[in-house]
From TrEMBL:
Signal peptide range in chain numbering: none
Protein name: Uncharacterized protein
Any Pfam family matching the protein: Elongin_A
Upper lineage: Eukaryota, Metazoa, Ecdysozoa, Arthropoda, Hexapoda
InterPro entries: Elongin-A_domain (IPR051870), RNA_pol_II_trans_fac_SIII_A (IPR010684)
GO cellular component: elongin complex
Single Gene Ontology BP annotation: transcription elongation by RNA polymerase II
Domain of life of the source: Eukaryota
Length: 73
């Protein structure tokens, strides 16, 4: 993914999902940084990254997969 896709211009998550599913955790984080509206929809993508990179880790009550990933990375 190249940096030209940092700001999405408000493209709906459903249209971006195929691209986001192929993003690395760093790319996903950068896309969310530039497009905070995506954060509400990306928890399943963070779950994938957590289970891949931090096997055996469990979330605290009320902790999102994104939060778990960021705390452990």
């Amino acid at each position: 993914m190249n940096s030209a896709l940092e700001y999405t211009g408000g493209v709906p998550y459903d249209l971006l999902k195929p691209v986001l599913e192929r993003a690395t955790s760093e790319q996903l984080y950068q896309l969310e940084h530039h497009n905070p509206y995506l954060i509400g929809d990306t928890d399943a993508l963070w779950e994938f990254h957590c289970k891949k990179d931090f096997r055996g880790q469990s979330r605290e009550e009320m902790e999102s997969w994104r939060d778990l990933y960021l705390v452990n990375s």
